[in-house]
Amino acid sequence: MNAHLTDALALAAAGLPVLPLRKGKVPFANCPACLYTSCGGRPHMKTPGHCTCPKPCHGWAAATTDPSVIQSGIWRRVWAQAGAVAYHPGGAGLTVVDLDHADAITWARRELPNTLTVPTTRGEHWIYLGAMQSANGVRPGVDIKSTMSYARWLGPGTGTMTQLPDAVRALTVKEPATVRAATVTVPAPVGGGECRHRTPAYLNRGIAMAEQRITEAHASVHTTVYRTFLAVLSAHGRCGCLTDAHVGRLFAAAQAKGESARHCTDAWTNARTRLGM
Q1: Rounded (10°) angle between helices 221-236 and 244-256
Q2: In what order do the strands lie in the sheet with 84-87?
Q3: 4: pLDDT strictly greater than 90
Q4: What is the mean pLDDT of residues 173-181?
Q5: What secondary structure does DSSP assign to the chain, as a single string?
Q6: What is the pTM of this model?
Q7: Up-side HSE of residue 239: CA atoms within 13 Å toward CB?
Q8: Does the pLDDT of residue 44 top 60, yes or no?
Q9: Residue 252: other Cβ atoms inside 10 A
């Protein structure tokens, strides 16, 4: 059996959605029937779409854990031409911080919590438990690979995987989004505003869950954003602990799903109005 196919089946059994890469370390191109998404698939959108093509088309959206697909006749022929095995981190609930050179590694060791580490050709992959939006060039030599992205399988690595920290999530919050979100007035305490939060981690966890809910929305994004804003304000909006930074994270997640700054502001305002803030 082809070595790449063997590795792919083992990874799929462990819960990692896999896909083959060409020798140039990029996904195989769409087949003629799916070219330019003529099949109805949407690999460039937020979800894989509805393509039922049995071939490994659509890049990261082709990643699968189904052994019957991975070792089907069509896929076997592709594995024979493959140069590497890749996986969809977000599909497995993971995030890969791709550190491309020594300076990036030095920064990570100083700023990020230790986690599972895999050496690469030029740097390291730091792998965390938890999914988020992907982004390239979040700082010099640092890419984020999670949802709607793929990472090469380079071995099991060393160390123990830890939870995705806020420090990594914050890397994808672009400066313009932060500035726009900062114009939103965060509600002041109401009626004394005694804080019900047991620890700061309670609020941070709530914001992270809200980001995830928005990021994972596959339909009715407008409604999801509004309801998420409503839930956050209901739980955290009256004690004064909610800051511009927290709001900026929520707006950035919404804008990554295609919402405009105006839609975000309108949804936030409507949620405050409904709650009497």
Answers
A1: 170
A2: 18-21, 84-87, 151-152
A3: yes
A4: 47
A5: --HHHHHHHHHHHTT--EEEE-TTSSBPPPPGGGGGGTTSB-TTSSS-BS---SSS-SGGGG-B--HHHHTSHHHHHHHHH-SEEEE-TGGGTEEEEEE-SHHHHHHHHHHS---EEEE-SSSEEEEEES--B-EEEEETTEEEEBBB--EE-----BS---BPPHHHHGGG--HHHHHHHHTSPPPPPSTT-----SSHHHHHHHHHHHHHHHHT--S-HHHHHHHHHHHHHHHHSSSS---HHHHHHHHHHHHHTT--HHHHHHHHHHHHHHTT-
A6: 0.62
A7: 13
A8: no
A9: 23
Sequence letter at residue 76: R
Give the burial class of 25: count Cβ atoms within 10 A of its Cβ; 0-12 exposed, 13-18 middle, 19 or more buried. Answer: exposed
Tokens of residue 163, six digits: 């939870």
